[in-house]
């Protein structure tokens, strides 16, 4: 690091890199007001760090402050902030601990974490008031993570000279947790007006994903949704089957989703193959020779299992990044600057981490809060060139599709008035942990889940690619293509056509695996009649769903309406639980509707 040469510098050099239009506008607004507190809400990948450090350099040059303190969520981000500050001539110490009292000589400040501040708030208060200090609260919504953190931040920096708050997602899942140093105003809360007005955060400058997309600051995102039929045995010993996209009730949807994410099923390897196919295309034809992908897992056990699946399906070992690994930060840095194709992680790359070459994300986690979704998708939208696109592969479940459809929606931190618990609000919580029944009782068990392409979600609109009216020449197949070359309908058509090819490729690779951890997808000689019947039913279900999509496209009606009419014409349980005979009858009925 070149910091040592500048350790005694008084006036840092502002960055020679030209500022983006939004960064310049935000700086002008700040300098016009010269406020004590300033909140910037900018979409992940927009360049909040550059804005903050440019402002810090200007304030230091004008001697309006003499110290800069950055508070961020993780230890890895401490290093990232210190490196970024070094590039603009600000020397920040990323290793200062609570055991050391004063700020080290030869630096202009330091980088700490919210957890460290909560550990000794009075120590940080003394540092922030010893001289005029600019406190930069990165991802300030973390100061709303429980009363203890919020109180500690207020105690530590309540008397600092200047405070700059940064966030890409100023909202929480618990509405009663106020974020310190954020301005709230009364606002009518959507819902029953009789409940009164709630509080809504107000940013001093806002730069959303929609604006960033128009400025080519971020990549356009295409969401590729994959459905499938899941089978599991509940705690009562009953075998239940349901489709991810037709689960009906929330509890069934949760169980189907959980089964799909099980490493022993076929949903995960199928989506891994689709993800790998996309990375290969980006590297060979998409102008991104270093393109990479991220897989988000729910827990460390799943992450390790997914890493094994990646190796089997792709033939290459991924980077496995776990939070309790002391080498996690080095692995992130190695992946960011290296050539590895895929990294599997739990939450280490969900927020703030800069991996510009990552352009593909596979959502294999049960988390679905708006905060986590926006931060995770933000890891693959940072644009380096105007032709780049981002692709997110995800389960075709209602909560995730809703978040994807509202990607461009501007959000504030809303604190609604107290009211009775809303059952629908539970959709924002993580899936419940795996059941731990007492010894001797039957346990919930995932049995099997297949995967098939459902649709592409782009700009809030779903495209199935099943209408048969889209033709793309092989030489024009820019798979999940660059906007302007392929329409969303063509993209969906290509994904649907490649789906069966991927299925065959996975089946062969899994068959070659001798570990026994993944089931072989071809029929076994000793398989009983019930097993063969289920495979016949699975294929019929896929065919019924394809035909439903075609009928829906032809008649401009929602898929759910077509399914309802189909069940009236051919009575019986939902397709996910229907017998082979009922499925065959429904298939014939659908054919007459085309």
Write a structural description.
- This protein is an alpha/beta fold.
- It folds into three domains: 213 residues, Rossmann fold; 280 residues, Rossmann fold; 71 residues, no CATH class.
- 37% of the residues lie in helices and 17% in strands.
- It has 17 helices and 20 strands.
- The strands form four sheets. The chain has an eight-stranded mixed beta sheet, sandwiched between helices. Strands 3-2-4-5-1-8 form a six-stranded parallel beta sheet, sandwiched between helices. The protein has a three-stranded antiparallel beta sheet with strand order 6-7-17, with no helix packed on it.
- Helix 12 links the parallel strand 15 and strand 16.
- Helix 5 runs parallel beside helix 6, helix 9 packs across helix 14 and helix 15 crosses helix 16.
- The radius of gyration is 26 Å and the shape is elongated.
- The chain starts with 20 loop residues before the first helix and ends with a helix.
- The N terminus is likely disordered.
């Amino acid at each position: 690091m070149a910091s040592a040469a500048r350790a005694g510098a008084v006036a840092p050099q502002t960055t020679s890199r030209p500022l983006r239009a939004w960064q310049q506008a935000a700086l002008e607004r700040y300098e016009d007001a010269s406020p004590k507190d300033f909140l910037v809400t900018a979409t992940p990948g927009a360049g909040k760090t550059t804005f903050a450090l440019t402002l810090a350099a200007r304030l230091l040059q004008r001697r309006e402050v003499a110290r800069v303190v950055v508070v961020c969520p993780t230890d890895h981000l401490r290093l990232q902030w210190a490196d970024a500050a070094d590039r603009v001539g600000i020397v920040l110490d990323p290793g200062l601990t609570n055991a050391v009292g004063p700020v080290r000589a030869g630096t202009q400040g330091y980088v700490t974490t919210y957890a460290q501040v909560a550990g000794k708030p009075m120590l940080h208060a003394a540092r922030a008031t010893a001289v005029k200090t600019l406190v930069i609260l990165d991802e300030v919504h973390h100061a709303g993570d429980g009363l203890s953190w919020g109180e500690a931040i207020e105690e530590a920096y309540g008397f600092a000279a200047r405070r700059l708050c940064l966030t890409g997602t100023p909202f929480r899942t618990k509405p009663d947790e106020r974020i310190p140093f954020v301005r709230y105003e009364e606002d009518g809360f959507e819902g029953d007006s009789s409940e009164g007005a709630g509080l809504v955060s107000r940013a001093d400058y806002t730069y959303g994903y929609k604006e960033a997309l128009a400025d080519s600051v971020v990549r356009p995102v295409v969401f590729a949704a994959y459905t499938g039929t899941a089978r599991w045995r509940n705690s009562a010993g009953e075998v239940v089957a349901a489709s991810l996209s037709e689960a009906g009730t929330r509890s069934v949807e949760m169980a189907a989703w959980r089964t799909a994410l099980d490493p022993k099923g076929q949903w995960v390897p199928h989506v891994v193959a689709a993800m790998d196919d996309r990375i290969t295309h980006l590297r060979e034809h998409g102008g991104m020779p270093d393109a990479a992908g991220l897989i988000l897992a729910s827990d460390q056990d799943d992450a390790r299992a997914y890493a094994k699946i990646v190796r089997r399906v792709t033939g290459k070992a991924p980077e496995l990044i776990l939070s309790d690994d002391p080498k996690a930060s080095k692995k992130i840095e190695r992946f960011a600057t290296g050539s590895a194709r895929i990294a599997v992680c739990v939450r280490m790359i969900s927020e703030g981490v800069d991996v510009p070459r990552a352009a593909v994300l596979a959502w294999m986690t049960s988390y679905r809060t708006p905060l986590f979704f926006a931060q995770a998708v933000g890891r693959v939208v940072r644009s380096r060139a105007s032709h780049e696109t981002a692709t997110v592969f995800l389960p075709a479940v209602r909560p995730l599709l809703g978040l994807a459809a509202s990607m461009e929606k501007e959000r504030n931190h809303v604190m609604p008035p107290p009211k009775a618990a809303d059952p629908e609000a539970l959709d924002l919580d993580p899936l419940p942990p795996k059941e731990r029944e007492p010894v001797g009782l039957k346990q919930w068990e995932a049995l099997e889940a297949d995967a098939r392409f459902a649709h592409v979600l782009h700009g809030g609109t779903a495209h199935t690619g099943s209408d048969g009216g889209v033709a793309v020449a092989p030489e024009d197949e820019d798979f999940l293509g660059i906007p302007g070359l392929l329409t969303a309908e063509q993209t969906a058509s290509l994904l649907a056509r490649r789906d069966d090819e991927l299925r065959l490729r996975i089946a062969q690779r899994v068959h070659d695996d001798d570990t026994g951890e993944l089931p072989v997808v071809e029929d076994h000689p000793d398989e009983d009649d019930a097993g063969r019947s289920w495979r016949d039913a699975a294929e019929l279900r896929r065919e019924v769903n394809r035909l439903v999509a075609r009928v829906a496209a032809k008649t401009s009606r929602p898929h759910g309406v077509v399914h309802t009419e189909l069940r009236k014409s051919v009575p019986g349980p939902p397709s996910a639980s229907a017998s082979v005979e009922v499925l065959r009858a429904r298939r014939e009925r659908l054919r007459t509707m085309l």
